[in-house]
Every structure is written in C-alpha cells, then in structure tokens.
Amino acid sequence: MEDLITIELFGQCYTFKTESEVTRAEAVADSLVKEVIRIQEKESGLLSEMTKFTILVLAALNIANENYDLRLNHSELLSKMSERSTELLQLIDAGFKLKV
Fold first, then answer.
1. ∠ CA 80-81-83 to the nearest 5 degrees?
2. What is the pLDDT of residues 2-13, one digit of tens each?
3. Confidence class for position 44, pLDDT limits 50, 70, 90
4. Which of 18, 44, 67, 82 has a CA-to-CA distance to 74 between 20 and 30 Å?
5. Cα angle at 61 between 11 and 77, to 5 degrees?
C-alpha cells in the first residue's frame, strides 16, 4: 500500500509518496512548512525580491543547521556520558578493592 502525504506551500498542494511512517513523514513535512512560514513572516518586506526557491533553500538550510547543532550536542553528550561512566566504574572498582 502506498502511503501519501500532502503539504501546502505557497498556496499550492504537493503530494509525496513516503517510505517512512506516515505520522513521521507528516511531522517532517510540517516542520518544513512551519519554517517556510516563519521565513515569510520574518522577511515580509523582502518577499517581493525573494523567489519561492530562495525561501525553500533558506528553510532547508535553517533546518539543516538545527539538525547539525542537535547532532553535535548529542555527540558531546554521549562523550561526556562515556567519560562519567568510566569514572564511576573506576570508583566502584576501587571501592570493591578496599573491601577485599
């Protein structure tokens, strides 16, 4: 069964086939729509000079930047958790050695 989602951008509907879960695909598409709307509202004075393609590229770059920041933060968090786990294991091992 084909799963289709539809989004509206610039007053036009676009329908896509999705290979992922429909609710997830809709959430991803919704984030793009929200970012496009945010840019349109922020740049309302410049919209006459900005093409739809430019707005879409800006939205994609903003989402990609947010994704990059999240990945970087996630990587740093994993590294810190690994360091702390090692420290805790060393303290536990040292505590067992004192009791033996």
1. 65
2. 689 999 999 999
3. confident
4. 18
5. 130
